[in-house]
Amino acid sequence: MTCEVCGSMKLQTELHDLLDRLTIGLRQIPGVTALYLFGSLATPEADAFADIDLQLITADMALTRADWPAALAHIQPVVLTWPITPAADNTAFAVLFQGMSLYHKVDIGVSTADDSPMPSSSEAALCLWSQPPSHIALPQPECRAYTPAHGTIGHQLLDQLIAAVRYVKSRKRGQLFTCWRFMRSQPEKLLQLLYEQQHAWVSHTGGLTTWDYKKLARVCDAATQQEVMRHLNWSTPAQMDRNFYWFVERSIELYTQKAATHHEQLPYAIIDAHLTFLRTELALK
Questions:
Q1: Pick from 51, 46, 98, 47: which is nearest to 72 by CA?
Q2: Rounded CA gap, 171 and 30, in Å?
Q3: Which domains does the chain have, with CATH numbers?
Q4: By mean pLDDT, which of 6-10, 57-61, 232-236, 248-252 is the weakest?
Q5: What does R_g of the chain's alpha carbons equal in angstroms?
Q6: What is the DSSP string of 109-173?
Q7: What is the pTM of this model?
Q8: What is residue 236's DSSP assignment?
């Protein structure tokens, strides 16, 4: 049996073990009445690289929200709870659990039965359980997860790293066109950060215009411009991997500079773990 097959089997076991523990542990959340599984795991096409997409239904949103998403730490220590929407009452998070592969991110939300997001006709959904609501509060768990406010520098940085893991998944699955989807945004992100660097790190939303690109070209030195252009060679999968990683790493460097200017603390352990994961999974030296 090859190392690659052994690794895939280990990932598969870890994935289903995490799903089993979530399925059991989420029953204890006060107010909840049902748990739904969405995405590839709700279909026969799921593989070892799948993440977990869950939706909890509650009969008492105020009760369930009381210690959400910190209550997830009852199941396993949590490293990251990344807000998915900008809403002030957001209850949907991308979650990374301590000790789990970065492939196995958990996207989980809470809603009432009336407000529950319904899957599209092409999206599978499975009800994993339903039950009467419990009104017994859980002991307050210790949760030291990094939870960046939506739109902060840390939130944007983790958005890029989460997308980078999706790129790796697509490479593992041989989905080169999907890789392109995640690759094509990398130069734009980097150039926008370079633009902000040249403008005292004032955030520039909405993407760069042609005029903005012209202004950036006037202030960026020739070496920087040539370096960016050199990493636009994506003619083979191997070159795409190397240059994808370069864009991600260079963008993280700029996000770090911007955060220092704005006195925002970043989760360096999470960042380093993602960069190490990318290098290892893409077999980069």
A1: 98
A2: 40
A3: 3-130 (3.30.460.10), 153-281 (1.20.120)
A4: 6-10
A5: 21
A6: EEEETTTPPPPPTTS-EEEEEE-PPP-PPPP------B-PPTTSHHHHHHHHHHHHHHHHHHHHT
A7: 0.94
A8: S
Strand 52-58, strand 125-130: pairing: unpaired
Q: List, for residues 128-166, the tens digit of each pLDDT value.
A: 999 999 888 888 777 889 999 999 999 999 999 999 999
Mean pLDDT for 256-284 is: 98
Q: Confirm if 26 and 71 have CB atoms less than 8 A apart.
A: no
DSSP 40: G
- 12-38 residue pLDDT tens: 999 999 999 999 999 999 999 999 999
Question: Residue 171 and residue 142: Cα distance in Å, rounded?
Answer: 36
Tokens of 235: 């003619």
